[in-house]
Structure formats: C-alpha cells, structure tokens
Design goal:
The chain has one domain: NAD(P)-binding Rossmann-like Domain (Rossmann fold, 3-Layer(aba) Sandwich). The chain is built from nine helices and eight strands. It has an eight-stranded mixed beta sheet, sandwiched between helices.
Length: 306
Amino acid sequence: MTKPQAWNADRIPDQTGRLFVVTGASSGLGLATARALAHRGGRVVLAVRDEAKGRRVAAEITAERPGASLEVRRLDLADLDSVRAFAERLRSDGLRPDVLVNNAGVLAPPRTLSAQGHELQFAANHLGHFALTGLLLDLLAGGTDPRVVTVSSANHRQGRFHFDDLTGERGYSPMGRYNQSKLANAVFGRELHRRLTAADSPVRSLLAHPGYAATGIQAGSVGPVKLLFGRLLRPLAQTPARGALPQLFAATAPDALGGQFIGPGGMGELRGAPKVVRLAPRATDAETARRLWELSERLTDVRFAL
C-alpha cells in the first residue's frame, strides 16, 4: 500500500486573492509563514515591531518571487495601544483580512512589565493576540474562507495559570511564565472556536505548534533556557520553514477544521509533517476558559462581537 504523501509547503493551495495578517513576520516562524504564503500568491501584511527589519525581509521575499504582494506595518503586541492603532489603520485603509496568524512570541526573558503593566510574556503572547483578534473579527467574518490561527506550544501542557499573581511580583520563573502564556493561547484558540461555532460564524479558529524549531526566539531569554534551547539542543531543531508547516496547514489546508490543534507528527511532536495532536485537558476546561476570557476582556478592554 502506498504511504500517503506527507503534507509540505508544496501542497499549499493557490492563495491568490486572499489577504493574510502574520504577526512576528520579520523572523523565524512568522517569516517562514509569510514567505510560503507569498510564494503561493497570497497577499501578506507583515505585522512587525521593527519596520526596517520587516522591509528588509519583504525585499528578500520579493527578490525570490517578483510581484509578491507584501506590506509591512508596525505592531508591538506587548503594547495594547499599538494593537489598537494597527487594527484601526487596517480598517481605515479598507483592508479586509481573510486569515489572521497569531504567531509572534516572547520566550523566557527576565521579568519585565508591558506598557500597560502586564507581565511581558502574558502581554505579548496572549493579551495582544486576544485584543487583535477581537478588533479584527468583524473584518475576518467577511473574508474568503476566514480563519484565525493561534500559535501555541507543546509546552502549554506544562502550563499553570497564576491568576492571583499575573505580573509575577510574588514569584517569577521565566519558563513557567512562558508555559502559562502558551496555555493561554491554547485556551483562547479553543474557546474562540466554541464561541464562533455557537454564533454560526464563518470564521474558523485553529491552533498550531511548531515542535522544536531554530527560530531565534531564545535570543531574549536568560540563564539555563538560553543555554539549553539556544545552544545545546539547537542541532536537533527543525528549520523555521519546517516548523512553520503546522500553522501553514491550519491557515490554508481545505480539510483543516475549526478547533483542531496541528503539530508535528514525529516522535514527541518535536519535528515532522503536520498532523492533528491533542490539547492538554486543562486547555479545554470550560471554567478555565470562562475565567481567562473574562479576565482578558477586562485587561484589554476588547469585547468580541459574538
């Protein structure tokens, strides 16, 4: 019996006519995602903190694929004012995204507070994406095969919520807070799927994780985390192009379903072709989802039109 062909970037359908917003698109998984989408004809907004870097990588992609439709816009997900400004400018410029890829992430930095006083990883990895999704949801609903893809991590399975100490004032573990933010991504993506389904919305919410990929996200981390992931284990890592395949599958594959969590199919979900993988039970707990959603609405002042 012939073994089914593993899904790869060559199997991305033609994306001509679709508009993608990819956060964190100037490096790592975001850049690999933007590149693959542009090569398949998609129009891509590269949402980046560093516009100069974004313009450089956009020029690289255009050199590879002349005529690629790319636009660089500034977005700092750790700053809710920046998130609102980004969403308002998209709206005022008449852009209607079909797919939002919530990709950008921060990994295990020293304890830092965001512009609004939130712990940096919770702010950038979760709150910023929660707010951005809510602010763009009505635009997405009018898109072609509209989807929200939120990038979590296998580490969400080790995550625990510190609802009584969200800023880490009483105790801060860089990796523990990263795991919490990735659990928040997982809970958000799954709860968004539930709410979209209940509202009979055309938008699909999917989750993805890259396994272990050499993306450079470790650059801002400290201590053992930087040593372990930035140096010792780096030879085992997938390339960003391979690590981006689960989120590309979630964003483009016709048979990707709302509520699915897509990750690598190899041993330990560290590498391999995309497949549906399991969420931790706490990521699907209804009471946890309700509590996180209400907290996120309060901290961002964003309400979803569902």
